[in-house]
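pasting for the record
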Amino acid sequence: MESKDVKIVAIVGMCGSGKSTAIEYLTERGIPKVYFGGVILNAIKEAGEEITPENEKKFREGLREKEGKDFVVKRVIESTKKLIEAGQKRIVLDGLYSWTEYKILRQEFPTEMTVVAIVVPKALRRKRLAIRPERPFTAQEVAERDRSEIENLEKGGPIAIADYYIDNSGTIPEFHEKFGKLMKEIDFIN
C-alpha cells in the first residue's frame, strides 16, 4: 500500500524518553494513533490477568515468542490500513519496538513512514520514571527493562536507524517546540 499523500510517523525511544508526550502532542491535534501496546494490553485483559509491569513484560515477550516476532506488527498494519481506507492521511504509530517490526513496517509503508527517535540521558530517564504518576519504576526496574527490551525485543535497531532524533532533556514546553518544528518540517502537521 503506497500513497504519496499518506504520512506515518513512528515514535521510538527507550522507556521514559517522552514517547507518550510526543504521541499526545499529535493526538491533541487530531492525528489518530495506532498503539502497539494496545495489542499487548488486550491480550492481558483477554487472559483475565491484571495489567502490571511484570505482566506487560511477560506478554510482550511471550506473545512474540509464541506467535512470532511479527505478531504485534501484523495487527498494527491492519489497524493502520483501516485508517488509511477511512481517509486518514496522517497516522502516528505508538510503540514500535523491534527491528523485525521496523523491517516489516518499512516494507509495508516504504515511502509513507518516518521514524522519529526521542532520546534522553539514562540518568534523566531514571529520574522521570521514578516520579511519574502512572507506573513509576525504580532505577533497578528501569535497568532491567532497558536490558530486556534491548536483548529480547531488539529495541535498539529502530532507534539506531531512525530518520530523525530529538533530545528531550529539557522541559515539556521546550520539547513541544522542538517536536512541533520537526513535524512541520516533514509536513506532518500544519
